[in-house]
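Lecture 7 notes: from sequence to structure.
We start with the chain below.
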Amino acid sequence: MRITELLKKESIELGVSLSSKEAAIDYLTGLMEAGGRLKDRAGYKEGILAREAQGSTAVGEGIAIPHAKVEAVKEPGLAAVTVPEGVDYDAFDGSLANLIFMIAAPAEGADVHLEALARLSTLLMTPGFKDGLLGATTKEEFLEIIDGAENEKFGQEEAASSDTGKKEESGAQVFSGYRLLAVTACPTGIAHTYMAAENLESTAKKMGISLKAETDGSGGAQNVLTREEIANAQAIIVAADREVEMARFDGKPVLQVPVADGIHKAKDLIEKAISGQTPVYHHAGGADGSRSESGSGDSRGRKIYKHLMNGVSHMLPFVIGGGLLIALAFLFDDYAIDPSNFGKNTPLAAYLKTIGEQAFGMMLPVLSGYIAMSIADRPGLAAGFVSGLAAKMGMTFGTPEGGAVNAGFLGALFAGFAAGYLVLGLKKLFSKLPKSLEGIKPVLLYPVLGIFLGTVITTFINPYMGVINDGLTNFLNGMGGEGRVVLGMIVAGMMSIDMGGPFNKAAYVFGTAQLAEGNFEVMASVMAGGMVPPIAIALCTTFFKKKFTKKDCQSGVVNYIMGLSFITEGAIPFAAADPLRVIPSCAIGAALAGGLSMFFGCTLRAPHGGLFVLPTIGNPLGYLAAVVIGSVAGCVILSLLKKNLDEADR
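Predicted structure tokens for the same chain:
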């Protein structure tokens, strides 16, 4: 499918003037609807905004490619605008976007559109292509430029592929085929995946180096690297923001970087890859497809943190989904029917709460399983899941059916690491077995011994984890008013210190763990602390405009939505630009909100949602007051710390 088949004239506008990123999104969704690609414009726009909340889709140099793959899309399509004066799209390089392509992909069905989308990403990296589109005066000319570039670029694919058998010399080494290989993958697998691949290939070509890039997109891997190519390559560049198949690169120099580096730092990556200093990647166990961290360069503490975050990231959907369903059950129930059965008095409430409890109950096994998998790869998953389940059940040797102790979150955390390193040890031990037994290791030895020994270790440690967990719960429940206020201030302030980093994650995980223990006040303070930074910044950019640039003021408006939605990361660009003023202001405001939430006795049964779960919050008026007071305080402090900008700087 060609690009021009996805891009209708009705979905193109040239010479548009747009005041903001939000205006651009609204305008382009209208063009997409005009092209007949959508079933629900509002639903599609919601998908676009959700993607932008993860990070701007501006790729720099005046180009932005917003995209969404959602149910609201009827058929794949493109929309495009040129903006001569440019519009601020939160690009990493600060450039204004003057060429924007919006991509619509249906949630289900064939991914035949992906080839065309890959072509678009490729062409946008071609010198002169963007300038030609910006100079187009009619829609017909715009489409002709795309069509001509597509014919020129992809009409020569066979000729290019026929050159891959040539040998390339480098010093004393001779490389048959490609000297460098690359794998690119972004979370959505739609645009950045292909742009990184194209930029790596085109940059390598300019440097006189042969490079083949595999794209791991939403439609599956394309241009897949062969065993022969991997064996003959000097090094491999993995530019990915999610896991890709790594076992095939065992023993090869591998450079692992974010996908954005493939787009913006291609030359540096290629130079490092051919320097001979790229770390060699190793995985233990051979045929089982496992990996190790050899050559990663991370410290032990960094590795442990990455293992933990792998578990937490997989756990959060269960926590958030289950928690919100439980909260809705309380919202739709009638307390007066039977207070002791609140949440399950009505059929709808009982159904929602049952589903929510099942999802929420998965959080500990999932946490444990994916920590173990991060350590020992696939062989660790089963051992981690079952060990986490043993922690959740509170198994002991005296009561193997469970229920004797409350190991809780801490028990599952320990179980995940114990199971992961146990399986890692088994893999090293079994590496000495004859190769004829290689096939039974992943299907028999690792599952049986991993699950059994992992559960034994967890069963042994559960009573100790139970003592610690019960002690912490009793300590929190026994805290007086002042102590609880201080606790609320601490966890809420942590949410604002690094806004999505380790402190933020630690506070959030602590809140969700206490939520599972029935301590709903801590989660309320955590969410209040996370809501304050974006709202405080939005207020400051609204009422103290002289202290910010015009761009900051425009971006600040978005933080109202992000703050009310409990998306703390909206404050990151402002904190990164002026950390010494922004972070203390937000932290103080967040701590004040968290302390007031505790003081007012606010509770929260849902682990996410911001203002949208207000009906499920205990003492909602008090909670609103806490968030408002904290946000205003953060705004005022920031306004006092920041100086007015000169007119020329605004």
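Points to note: Residues 440-478 form the longest helix (39 residues). The longest strand covers residues 77-88.
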